[in-house]
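User: I'll paste a sequence; please echo it back and then give the predicted structure.

Assistant: Echoing your sequence first, then the prediction.
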Amino acid sequence: MEIYVGTEPPKDEGWTQDPDVFDTWFSSGQWPFATLGYPNGKDFKDFYPTSVMETGWDILFFWVARMIMLGLYVTGKVPFEHVYLHGLVRDKDRQKMSKSKGNVIDPLGVIDLYGADALRMALVIGNTAGNDIIISEEKIKGYRNFANKIWNASRFVLMNLDPLSPTPLPKGEGRVRVKLTVADKKTLKELDAMAKKVTSHLDKFEFHHAGETLYHYFWHTFADKIIEQMKPRLQIPSPQSSPTRGEEAGRNPSPATGRGQGEGDRKAAQYILHTCLATCLKLLHPFMPFVTETIWQQMPKEKQSMLIVEKWPSK
């Protein structure tokens, strides 16, 4: 028996089409409910329909449309509320990556060289829904440098924190009540605004904007400005030093610099650094989970936990 496979039927006489042929997307079209144990599985009852379906725009009518049709036919419900379509990855010359062209970037090789976090950020930044993304090794290197910046800035903060983080709250064993300066309060207000901005972008599926906001805040605000401003305040005061007239150590900061004197002001600086770093790690975790989790496990905290289950900062 001779078998013919092709997109066009054979021109010769006597061929019989195989009657046992089915749409190749039929089984994958049942994925949303079949994988959850339809019809009686606990996961199906708990998680169907899902909230977001993410896939490439090129299979919108092949896969997404069939999942909706089969989901409605079998369960009576649309299988997901939102569909997020990512673009295709192209090289720096906007050419589609293919083995024949020799322009494919091997993700495993890139991860070995620059880390998974750098690759993740390179794929997110500059990638809008439904549009193709341009990626190059130079771009991935840039976010490797960002991961190094996160590591080095965090290392400095950790080296200058006490075993338990200072807090303005009076309760808690080992905690120290601190008085924040006007500049400190402004820093925290800007941090909160940044967290809300990132959250707003994520809620609207603007992942590229969220990533860019975090990149610029951590590098240009936290690392370049806040840490530098806090360095003089982290100096351990000499036991022989005494506050100047009209200034009580850690209570009456200079209105010009926002800096106080003594151990109280040092604790306030530690609190600002700890709060900013912890918030940044939580917000960056969905984008760069490996470096953020590693740093998080070294952070002084009263209870060990993983970042993925930490409370989101803007909530």
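The beta strands are 50-56, 80-86, 89-90, 133-134. The radius of gyration is 27 Å.
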